[in-house]
Amino acid sequence: MTKQSAVLAVMLLAIAVSSGAQSTDCSSCGSGNTYPTITLTITYPPGTLSSQTAAVPVSSDPGAINTIRQVMINAACPLPGLSFTTTNYCPYGGGVATINGIAPQSSADYWEIYVNGAYAPCGLDTCSLAPGNTIAFCVANESCSSLMAKAKAGKVKAGSSHQAKIHKASEKAAHQ
């Protein structure tokens, strides 16, 4: 099996799994192989798990579509045992319910997604990512303060007004 076939197999698995607990054993990644990566950071709520950061292998094949869900599934390569559960969240595709069994402490909070330092205007299945991108997960009102501070300080590219509207709409939906 070629490297590209192995990556494709992992991506097809990601597409086939649409909700519930999701993880992979990383057997298709192989040792010693090199792939382009996306940096994944998970900041857990205080008093739970330590933050995690890893370079996650993704496809660089022409026409490949790397989604956040695919990155989370592939994350078992650098983060063995990583698991997550999802919820349906239209129109953005799946949303994250838990990561490694950790759920937001309040029903009013949710796992936020940041892509390249800005709040993501999309969900697990609707963000198209490219090698070199960064993804960060944190729990709204519990563990996002450092990401939000960097965005406000102008250390990352600010989101568009359209993105801000989507953020407000997603917050409203999450609180219902």
Number of alpha- plus pi-helical segments: 4
Share of residues in strands: 15-25%
Which CATH class is shown? Mainly Beta
Biggest sheet overview: 5 strands, mixed
Q: How far do the termini sit from each other?
A: 47 Å
Q: Numbering strands along the chain, what is their spatial order in the largest sheet?
A: 2-1-7-5-6
CATH architecture field: Beta Complex
Q: Oligomeric form of this entry? A: single chain
Number of domains: 1
Poorly predicted spans: 1-25, 156-176
Reported by name, the CATH topology is Ferric Hydroxamate Uptake Protein, Chain A, domain 1
Give the proportion of residues in helices. Answer: 10-25%
User: In sequence order, what are the helices and strands, one letter per element?
Assistant: HEEHEEEEEHH
Radius of gyration: 16 Å
Summing up helix and strand content along with how strands pair, one would put the structural category as: alpha+beta
Number of strands: 7
User: If you average the pLDDT, what whole number results?
Assistant: 73
Apparent shape: globular
Set out the fold topology.
Layout: H1 3-16, E1 37-43, E2 52-57, H2 68-74, E3 84-88, E4 94-99, E5 111-115, E6 118-119, E7 134-139, H3 145-152, H4 161-174
Parallel strand pairs: 1-7
Antiparallel strand pairs: 1-2, 3-4, 5-6, 5-7
Helix pairs in contact: 1-2
